[in-house]
Write a structure and sequence with these properties.
This protein has 213 residues and is mainly alpha-helical. 66% of the residues lie in helices and 4% in strands. The chain has a two-stranded antiparallel ribbon. Helix 3 packs antiparallel against helix 4 and helix 6 packs antiparallel against helix 7. The longest helix has 33 residues. The radius of gyration is 19 Å and the shape is elongated. The termini are far apart. The relative contact order is 0.16.
């Protein structure tokens, strides 16, 4: 079932426009400058909520990406689709810097050739999906906008589309990212209520809850 769904998304449900869109959504290099700029802007001009969002987001990113995702990748060694199957489409933006220039360049599209000994895989979990879920869920909590949660679903789909992950990788990663982020958000809320009153009483009086109600 996992393989059939992969091939449907990766080879059958495709178009030139989708190739371009999905390669953009899947490119960390494309979005990183934008995310960094937004983080700086929120920290500088976003008030208490913006600074709390950026700070907690960075903490969750370290735990989810460097901790959970990286540890599981090295423990599970699951091969990526292009490592395990013939004919998986690999779709990516052109290798240019900055990556945004790749929007106007021809895409890099190739097809995998299965090799019996592929070595250690890094397919499970999808760090792209976990990290996107981390920030999307925090944005939904801080700003009360549930539509942010559509972003990690699109990013996860794009990772299947470009041949980097199995559908089951993405499904697991969505739940893993949401679960770990919710746990850390609950711990941060509890810590703010207890320690904020002790260390920053005036600020805590103005913002008694980390996540506004």
């Amino acid at each position: 079932m996992d393989q059939k769904l992969l091939l449907l998304i990766n080879r059958d449900w495709t178009s030139p426009a989708a190739d371009r869109f999905m390669s953009v959504m899947s490119s960390a290099g494309f979005w990183m400058p934008l995310f960094a700029g937004c983080a700086v802007a929120l920290a500088a001009f976003g008030g208490f909520r913006g600074r709390a969002f950026v700070l907690l987001g960075l903490v969750c990113l370290v735990v989810n990406d460097s901790g959970i995702a990286n540890t599981l990748k090295h423990a599970l060694h699951r091969p990526r689709p292009w490592q395990a199957l013939d004919g998986v489409r690999q779709v990516d933006l052109a290798r240019v810097h900055p990556q945004v220039i790749g929007l106007w360049k021809p895409l890099r599209i190739s097809y995998s050739h299965h090799v019996a000994d592929v070595g250690a895989g890094r397919s499970l979990p999808s760090a792209h999906t976990i990290n996107t879920m981390t920030f999307a869920l925090l944005a939904a909590l801080f700003y009360r906008r549930a539509e942010f949660l559509a972003i990690p679903v699109i990013v996860g789909w794009s990772r299947i589309y470009v041949g980097s992950h199995w559908p089951s990788d993405v499904a697991v990663s969505l739940f893993l990212g949401a679960g770990s982020t919710l746990v850390m958000a609950a711990l941060a809320e509890a810590a703010w209520r207890r320690l904020g009153a002790r260390w920053l009483p005036r600020l805590q009086d103005r913002h008694p809850f980390l996540f506004s109600k």
